[in-house]
Amino acid sequence: MAMGVVGGLVGVLGRTLRKRQSLTVLLLLLFSLSLIRNARHEMRIETRVEEEEEESEEDYITPEEVLQVLRLLDSAVSNVEAQCGRMVTLGGRITCSCEKKLCGVDGAKMVCLDPDVMPPPRHCHALNFGIGYEFSFDEALVNYGCRVFAFDPTNSNITNKVYQANYTQGLAAPKPRRDSRAPSPLRRTFHALNLGLGPKDHTLFLNLTEDGRYYRGNIATFLTYRSVLRILDNPRVDIIKIDIEGVEWQVLQELLSAPDAAEALQHVRQILMEVHFDFLKPDMNAEKLLKAAWRALRVLQRLRELGFHLAAFDLNNTAQKYMAFGPLRLALFREVTLIRRSPAGVLG
């Protein structure tokens, strides 16, 4: 249609040029072309606005969608699916909160002693990530008969030390044996290394100042779970305990997204973990909140796909915080025990 208008105007121009009225017709032609160009521009703008409106409608996240994912996340760490006949609490120390006027046990972990998820003494190997200065859980595992490899980047005094556990003295450096011909005692050893667990192999400078007065820093090395297995010469691992202040989601996401995730965890029967949801902030917009909650939920779902089911959980009431979202009040910290039954029935 536009080309027809232009053609007609050109014809008029040819006739009027002969009548010496070219200036008027030329102005008319330029004005018509300007109208056509503006009309096309307006059509492009309207099309773009309609497309953006359609995209915004598709990307809009409702509060109901966020609430649904948060409820699924809460359910994943509070609905017990696996029954344990002999669940015990190992380690821990009493801590009190003056603000809340509450006392509780910190550092304790729930361990299932059923024979299909807990090897017998002297056949048990455990990895403990995140110990700080609290060794009671390690003592309990070692006294049971496990060999424990513990990792923590914040305590430089434990680097590459090997301790011998004693039922009365706790963890102490092993004494040299005078008679090498004497029979070897029951090995209840605890290996402590100044290393951290991370989503990648890297070093990081940690500011460990606590009271704001005395500065204390530490250059820490972090390794992935697979790198830890390599430096330990790929031991059989039965129990993994993780308490790394929120980094567990990045570590597990890196571990579980790899094709060899099942192989890396093939012998693991229990995962004891303190889960942190404090990355969920009430002031986050709906999209960010949904993505953050979904990432954590996907990690828990992937563990479930590999056979790990919730056997126990406990809220740390002395240091507990909550996030309210609509009718949901989500606890941001809790201890969980995930177990995976052995097909053979009994571990040995």
Strand order, largest beta sheet: 8-7-9-6-5-13-14-18-15
**Whole-number mean pLDDT:** 80
Taking Cα atoms only, what radius of gyration do you get, to the nearest Å? 33 Å
CATH level 1 class label of the largest domain: Alpha Beta
How large is the share of residues in beta strands?
Answer: 25-35%
Report the principal-axis shape.
elongated
Order of helices and strands: HHHEEEEEHEEEEEEEHEHHEHEEEE
Poorly predicted ranges: 162-174, 179-187
Q: How many separate domains?
A: 2
Largest sheet: 9 strands, mixed
What's the total helix number? 8
So, CATH architecture of the largest domain? 3-Layer(aba) Sandwich
Protein name: Methyltransferase FkbM domain-containing protein
Domain Methyltransferase FkbM: 135-309
Pfam families: Methyltransf_21 (PF05050)
Walk me through this protein's architecture.
- This is Methyltransferase FkbM domain-containing protein.
- It holds the Pfam family Methyltransf_21.
- There is one protein chain.
- With 348 residues, this protein is α/β, with parallel strands linked by helices.
- It folds into two domains: 2-59; 63-174 and 186-339, Rossmann fold (3-Layer(aba) Sandwich).
- Helix content is 34%, strand content 26%.
- It contains eight helices and 18 strands.
- The chain has a nine-stranded mixed sheet, covered by helices on one side.
- Helix 1 (2-18) runs antiparallel to helix 2 and helix 6 (248-256) packs across helix 8.
- The longest helix has 38 residues, at 22-59.
Task: Give a quick precis of the structure.
This protein has helices spanning 2-18, 22-59, 63-76, 136-144, 225-231, 248-256, 261-264, 286-305; strands at residues 87-90, 93-97, 102-106, 109-112, 124-129, 146-151, 161-166, 170-172, 189-193, 196-197, 202-207, 217-223, 239-242, 270-276, 309-315, 322-325, 328-331, 333-339. It is of the alpha/beta class and 348 residues long.
